[in-house]
Amino acid sequence: MSLAEPQSRFFRPDRALLIQAAVALATLALVLGPLVPVLWQSLLDRPLYEADPLFSLDNYVRLFGNPRFHDALGNSVLLALLSTLIATVLGVAFALFLERTDMPGRGWLRNLTLWPMYVSQLVLAFAWFILYGPSGYVTLAVERMAGVPLWDMYTILGMGLLAGTSQAPVVYLFCSSSARMADAMLEDAARSVGAGPLRALWSVSLPLMRPSIIYAALLTFIGSLEMLAVPLVFGKPVGLEFFTTFLYMEGLGAITPDYGLIGAAATLLLVVISILLVIQGLLLRQSKRFVTVRGKAQRPKLAPIGRVGWVVCGLMSLYTALVLLLPLAGIVLRSVTSFLTPLMSPFDLLTLDHFEILFGYEAYRRSILNSVFIAAFGGALATLFVAMVALVAHRSEFRFRRALEFVALYPRAMPGIIAGIGMFWAMLLLPFAHVLQGTIWLLMLAFTMRGIPMAFGALSPTLHQIGRELDQGARSVGADWWTTVRVIILPLMKPALFSAYVLLFLAFLKEYAAAVFLFAPGAEIIGTTMLTFWTNGSTGPVAALSVIQLAITALFVTLARRSLRTNKDV
Amino acid sequence: MSEVVVDRLNKHYGPVQALHEVSLHVPDGEFLTLLGPSGCGKSTTLFAIAGLDSPSGGRITVGGRDFYNGASGLELPPEKRNLGLVFQSYALWPHMNVRQNLAFPLRLRKVGKKEQDARIEEALALVEMGAYIDRYPHELSGGQQQRVALARTLVFRPSLLLLDEPLSNLDAKLRIKARSWLKQLQRQLGLTTLYVTHDQSEALALSDRIVVMEKGRVSQLGSPEEIYRRPANAFVADFVGASNFLPGDVVDRNAITGTCRVKLAGGDVLTALWPDNSAPPAGSLLTVRPEHVKLSAEPPLPGPDVNILAGRILERAYLGARLLYTLDCGHGMVVMAETETRVEGDTAWLCFAVDDTLLVRA
Ligand SMILES: Nc1ncnc2c1ncn2[C@@H]1O[C@H](COP(=O)(O)OP(=O)(O)OP(=O)(O)O)[C@@H](O)[C@H]1O
Ligand SMILES: [Mg+2]
Fold it and tell me: Which residue is closest in CA terms to ligand 1's atom 7?
């Protein structure tokens, strides 16, 4: 057989190693690209593009001496704690009632509960503002009846409600699987010693979910720390500053941005989130030991809660209506009216002006097209790229594959706004970077970097499920690593690749925080255009853009679900 | 042309040493079986030869060509080795049908379309699976998948066949059928074959020679007959089913007959084979298979060719055609005897031929 002919080792270019090294280096560059400039800048006494800098810790000294930063830090922690509390209580309650009881309406409530995850937090914030803001439709309507305003969204409590309810689905998602896996026998045991069904849920099922609850709570806490939309919409008008808005204002608000201060603040946020992620990782490792996954799928028994179920069902429907459906209806209505007030019937104010503005100006049209292009095309590129990263990390003999996995997962610790600042600064430092500057390709790079951990997480379980002997078999019959990957593994990963693409598409469509420092004329996206309109006080076009983003999302999700259903047995 | 030489192969997994100086020599055309308990390093050895597992040191040569050389750092990637490996789980690619599974190795070798079809048919005919060419793996039974897996490795005419417990997923009946069929096929093709199993009867039935492995080391290498009749140590003896081990002190050694006389704890002196040239080391054990122990109620005739012991019957287990007795021969010595004879009462005489009694290293 000619295949077994001896070949000189010198002349065999190792295709596999070349590809693996290229993927690893690209990942490293993508992650370090924004990270290094931030850390570097935090130690310099002048903007990083200026010559002959001096190293000092002066930036940190100034940062900690800055009373505005003290306020921002305190507000951020307070808001994060509050939204974590709200999200966790709601998410866990959803998980218990939807997964462990026989309450009516579970099917559609389960779906509805997850909806907020598809909607951009920015859009949700605008929608809440239109209804529940200080001059919001509902606020004014209630104020007219009660005589005084009953709530104030320009407070940490108000923001906590929005941030908490918008993140409750994440908690629900994490806890629902552990709720579903919980052994019904343990609940039965509680019942047999005299506990009622609700009591059994409270004292047996809930404690069993503790590892996932803590994990999800940490996730929410991190999410709240790096959140930009809610503080921007509800904090900025009354001068409430947060970690992210501090960075935003320092970077974009000042005429001469204080680079050192931004670098130090960004570094501090990175350190805090990194520490939280390490804690989360340790918890996860520990909690895995307690999970007993049985090979046989057992259908857990649902606790019969009778009439309480109807009450809970009613409350949950009301909740969904108040936090999601009404605000979405409000923003749709706002997009087709010249303004929205309880004093006048919206039907007298109907107009298509906002959409006409959007479609009449090149820049606005472009931002929509750019967003769709980045989501559709950039999402596809990112999916392939992350697939390669996952393949090298899980399915190769590459020497640094463990390190690669670590690097690939690190962007979880990088809030969008910091990724944007870092990329922006990297463009100032790198010699040939100006070709990317102000293009949508730069945005794609930034979004891809942010999206790696999520797509990696979507692909990894499938890769673990594909037996190793399938690639070993291919190798032993004569295929090299790259052929094995192309012909055997990638085809078997198709469903996972599709889900990763869906996730990345939606994430890229929603992303705004990483873009605020990177967009430029010609490279606008929906999110940045919305923020521009918002800053100018033009609520109508913001609502219209939100509606367009929601429509694209809905269309894409529907198509994705349909093709997922028809492709099921491929 | 494809003789296999494995020379002092080592393999570490961190602090665990999975292989310890494993050396093998497989002449061209031989059927060699790696036999041993779970975790002894059989798969590791096989995968090292296939190139799917990187050894930590040693050397592997196939057909005179270095596949792995720890000293020079040479390691041929698996795809360059042209070996046929059959996995315990078959590893048929689920997204390809039988034809595509078999065509893949041929495509890699740039075999023309016509030639591909001819070879695929030929390989499927060999394993009697021609009728299933368009099925997908999940549409085949376990035994059929196993045949296709074998056909997939035969189709590209590998220089060496490596089989990792290929029959362990089949039921007992099918396993025995597949065994003789596999043996026949190997004879017919004359392929050098390395076979991994932890089933001693499978190893005895199939192999030209057997390597018994223990904790990453080669314990004994020999023909099935040698392994069965003359296990080199207590571990091999135990693994091939000699479950009686009696401790004792060697009284003397007769180099001419190749025997030793051993004094047991109770004072009985038995004669055992010791075919070695050196004196048996201290702590050696006397062993005899249960099926070689005869029982009688009356004392048997003593003689130079037989060993005799007295014992108290602890337990009788009914095995169908035979009975398995557990006897206490005093001083903590428990002996099992498998025999057709029925012995009533509490005590019995045990008698076994010197030729069936072996002294082995502990
Ligand atoms: N990836 C690994 N990491 C650490 N130890 C390993 C790894 N793979 C195998 N081992 C260890 O190496 C030893 C030999 O394993 P091997 O798979 O060769 O056993 P085996 O003889 O094939 O057993 P079995 O009959 O169960 O398949 C075992 O002790 C095993 O625990
Ligand atoms: Mg094995």
Answer: B13
Looking at the complex, report in whole angstroms how far the Cα of residue A349 sits from the nearest Cα belonging to chain B.
58
Answer yes or no: is pLDDT of B336 > 50.
yes
- On whether residue A200 sits in a domain, the answer given is yes
Asked whether the predicted pLDDT for residue A214 surpasses 90, the reply is no
DSSP assignment of B279-326: PPPTT-EEEE-GGG-EEESSPPPP-TTEEEEEEEEEEEEE-SSSEEEE
The 10 Å CB-count burial string (b at 16+, else e) for A125-152 is bbbbbbbbbbebbbbbebbeeeeeeebe
Give residues whose Cβ lies within 5 Å of ion ligand 2.
B 43
- Nearest CA to B104 out of B89, B115, B93 is that of B93
Mean pLDDT over A150-172 rounds to: 92
Residues B140 and B258 in one domain: no
| pLDDT of B12 | 92
Residue of B nearest to A479 (CA): B79
* Minimum distance, in Å, between the CA of residue A474 and any CA atom of chain B: 8
Both tokens assigned to A337: 């009216």
Calpha distance B3→B1 (Å, rounded) = 6
Tell me which of A475, A477, A487, A489 to substitute to probe the interface with B (most B C-beta atoms closer than 10 Å): A477
> In a mutagenesis test of the A interface, which of B65, B80, B109, B156 is the best target, namely the one with the most A β-carbons within 10 Å?
B80
B112 pLDDT higher than 90: yes
Residue A477 lies in a domain: no
- Among B44, B88, B212, residue to substitute to test ligand 1 (most atoms within 8 Å of Cβ): B44
Identify the domain containing residue B58 by its residue range.
Answer: 4-233
Residue A10 has pLDDT above 50, yes or no: no
In a domain, A386, yes or no: no
* Domain count along chain A: 1
The answer, yes or no, to whether residue A122 has pLDDT greater than 70, is yes
Give the pLDDT mean for B245-250: 89
Closest CA to B233 of B216, B221, B248, B251: B221
B110 contacts on A by Cβ (under 8 Å):
none
**What is the mean pLDDT of the segment spanning A189-195?**
66
Contact A3 B80 (CB under 8 A): yes
Q: Which atom of ligand 1 is nearest to the CA of B41?
A: 18
Residue A226 lies in a domain: yes
| Predicted complex ipTM | 0.76
